Amino acid sequence: MIIANTYTFKILRYDAKEPEETPSFSFYQIKVLPGLTVLAVLMRIRDEIDGTLSFRSSCRSAVCGSCAMVINGKIDLACRTQVASFGDETIILEPLPNFEIIKDLVVDLTPFWTMYEKIKPWLSRKQPDPEKEIPQSEEERDRIDQFVNCILCASCYGACPVLARNPDYMGPHAFAKLERFMLDSRDERSMRSLEEINNERGVWGCDTLLRCIDACPKDVRPTDSIVGLRKKLLKYKLFGKRNDED
């Protein structure tokens, strides 16, 4: 016989449309069967107990990254976090740090996407487009696999201590994606394109505390990308061109 345990969900509530109200916690007691995720319980709370509760979700499979939040003090995806993994029967849910709250667990991701767009996250080509695809060897693909795994969930952005004090910092997600394209054998962007990140708002602003690595649900290790980009910049400044320049 499967026994459902009773958990108390303590969820931060706030509505930016009601600025006179201060953030506060709502408490929900709910019986949870083994195997249910935090996201599944959130849906049940919204559908059966409190229809005003707001949160983001989509794939429920740790692919889209939209349900990233703080769960008992740790940033993670609600869809992959088992309720039964917590010994404590009180589970505290809060929105991602470093973002403005729109409502409850939903945050405004505009600055996250703005910084992402700055690194031009697409293949940059100088040569004419080929008639067929550009082949890659297995070794060339292996070079970018780590960073291709990024699902843009914003967990690293929320965990970054630099962004907590400097909102102009580009963020670990941007550097992980930039390194992904810099390492791609099909990409032909100039080293000159790295000048925008050659400052304290860029790769030199990182404290290398590895919080982004701890928070990433896909083991992308954004700090590795920052180190890689720093090395590229130093080699470029010391020895010149990486590729043919314009």
Write the layout of secondary structure elements.
Elements: E1 5-13, E2 24-32, H1 38-49, E3 68-71, E4 74-77, E5 90-94, E6 101-103, E7 106-107, H2 110-118, H3 138-148, H4 155-159, H5 161-165, H6 172-182, H7 211-215, H8 222-239
Parallel strand pairs: 1-5
Antiparallel strand pairs: 1-2, 3-4, 3-5, 6-7
Helix pairs in contact: 3-6, 6-8
Describe the structure.
- With 246 residues, the chain is of the alpha+beta class.
- The protein has two domains: 5-107, Beta-grasp domain (Ubiquitin-like (UB roll), Roll); 110-239, Alpha-helical ferredoxin (Fumarate Reductase Iron-sulfur Protein, Chain B, domain 2), CATH 1.10.1060.
- The chain is 31% helix and 15% strand.
- It contains eight helices and seven strands, in the order ββαβββββααααααα.
- The longest helix is centred in the last third of the chain and has 18 residues, at 222-239.
- The protein is elongated, with a radius of gyration of 21 Å.
